[in-house]
Amino acid sequence: MKLRLLDHLVCPIDKSRLELVQWEASSVKLSAEELGRIERVGLEPALFSTEITTGLLLNRTKKIFYPIHQGIPRMLVFPTGVARYFAEKHAERIARELPGFTLPQEKAMSGEETVLRTFSSEWVNYDWDEGSYWNLTPDVMYKSMNFMLDLSRRPVKDKLILEVGIGIGGIADYMARRAECELVGMDLSYAVDPAYRHFGTNPFLHIVQGSAFAPQFRENTFDLVYSQGVLHHTFSTKSAFDQICKLPKLGGRLYVWVYNPHDDQRTLIRRAIMLMETVIRPLCCRLPASLQTVALLPLLPLYLIHQNFLAGRNGSPRIKYGLREAMHAARDRFTPRFAHRHTEEEVCRWFREAGYINLQCVSKRAHPEFIPISLVAATAVDGTRG
Known about the structure:
Blueprint: E1 19-27, H1 32-40, H2 46-49, E2 50-59, E3 64-69, E4 72-73, H3 81-89, H4 91-97, H5 112-124, H6 138-148, E5 160-164, H7 170-178, E6 182-187, H8 192-199, E7 205-209, E8 222-228, H9 237-244, E9 248-258, H10 268-284, H11 289-296, H12 300-310, H13 323-334, H14 344-353, E10 356-361, H15 373-376, E11 379-385
Parallel strand pairs: 5-6, 5-8, 6-7, 8-9
Antiparallel strand pairs: 1-2, 2-3, 3-4, 9-11, 10-11
Helix pairs in contact: 6-7, 12-13
């Protein structure tokens, strides 16, 4: 955790300021280019060059603490395995220095503990190799996200951005570096750990474990908030939307990408996969991770055949699947507890009800040939907070 992140965080329970207790930290050498970016926005280099690996974030009024474990603030309001491990490991020191302080004990939102488990299994076992991002090359994925977020027409240089659902962190790292913005990436799952391991050295990327239902940020904070393929995996996409829509500044932007029911009917193959999902996912999501792996093994040849021999990419480089990539894709499709579908009309209505103007659906924009049809056939809406 960089010191700078403390300026953006608040207690997700009562939105009060948090006090930092720093136990272990290291110095990060900044390049001349990075120093120039920091100077350009009028901030102190020390905010970006001090990396806190172990410590606490305190709400003294409520006498609760949020661990900073392995460089990542753990801001979930309900106890998790990592938070309990941290509390037990440092129990003597916490009792000595902060008597009476405990982890937050709020109740998790419906299904969150299951979502944390399934998506942690999906991402923690998917190590970044710089050769592929899902079924695309990283370059195509990054160019696609540049189009989806309309960054060419609406650049975010020197802006403050939030990604809700950072996953393994490649898109967030790319955005922070190439778009020259400061980006906070949050995720409910332990995907934050490989994200931090691979991209935590980027001084302009901050990684937090947190929930969309109890955001650890004040309202009216960010210039752009975006969420790509995440909110539909919560118990209520609309309830999650209602929380994150408060985070952009007035005049700031919100972008949301969720599954569209019509996209699953585009082709015979997609209709067959949707039928399989309807049968398999409600059963598979309840299994322990190890049994999920066993249950999904018979499906892997189908992913390998489709991706390696049948799939076309509109001229984009084709990514060959191995067993790792096939299992990752199968987990994403068949293990989430929730996978809601929403039309553009429905999501646009949410935006309008929240006071957003200048709505734009990505499907209505002319798109380059390299953009996968699966991205633009989904429901992707952005708007300006009025």
